From TrEMBL:
CDD domains: RNase_HI_prokaryote_like (cd09278). GO terms for biological process: DNA replication, removal of RNA primer. PROSITE patterns: RNASE_H_1. Monomer. This is ribonuclease H. One of its GO terms (molecular function) is nucleic acid binding.
Length: 163
């Protein structure tokens, strides 16, 4: 295993309501086979949406990839998968504007992700949510913890099964 394998997810309880609480979760296995599970809430004062939580999961996971090794990122968000597979570069080239000439939602996180991607080789895969893929199911559970306001950072020697 000479790569990072990452699964990310976001969750939002009461999405769309004034009482919404969002959280993110990620599971990553490093090139040595060690696994890190991380989770946290979307901070107060920021939009409490599932979309923002999904993006935070990607940013927080990429932040952990400090070794020069390829990254395989799995997400159940088609939007994030497509953005990382090409839209992001296009938005950046157009001054952070989409085809409708508006900036992408949560521009601050997209710019942060863009910075974290610099110098990294990332392959992004979309996975179907709730389809029994172990890494995705675990990221989903971690995101729910984050949406309840909990934070987690737990290391283990057990790699997550690949999709």
């Amino acid at each position: 295993m000479n790569t990072y394998t990452i699964y990310t997810d976001g969750a939002c309880h009461n999405n769309g309501s004034p009482f919404a609480q969002a959280g993110w979760g990620a599971v990553l296995t490093n090139p040595q086979g060690d696994t890190l599970e991380i989770a946290g809430p979307v901070p107060e004062g920021q939009p409490q949406t599932n979309s923002r939580a999904e993006l935070m999961a990607v940013a927080e996971a990429l932040k952990q990839c400090k070794q020069p090794a390829p990254i395989i990122l799995h997400t159940d968000s088609e939007y994030i998968a497509k953005a990382l597979q090409g839209w992001l570069a296009s938005w950046k080239a157009k001054g952070w504007k989409k085809s409708d000439r508006k900036p992408p939602e949560h521009l601050d996180l997209w710019q942060r992700i863009d910075q974290l991607l610099q110098g990294k080789k990332v392959t992004t895969h979309w996975v179907k949510a709730h389809s029994g893929i172990l890494g995705n199911e675990r990221a989903d559970a971690l995101a729910s913890l984050g949406a309840r306001g909990e934070k987690l950072s737990k290391r283990s020697r057990r790699p997550v099964e690949a999709a």
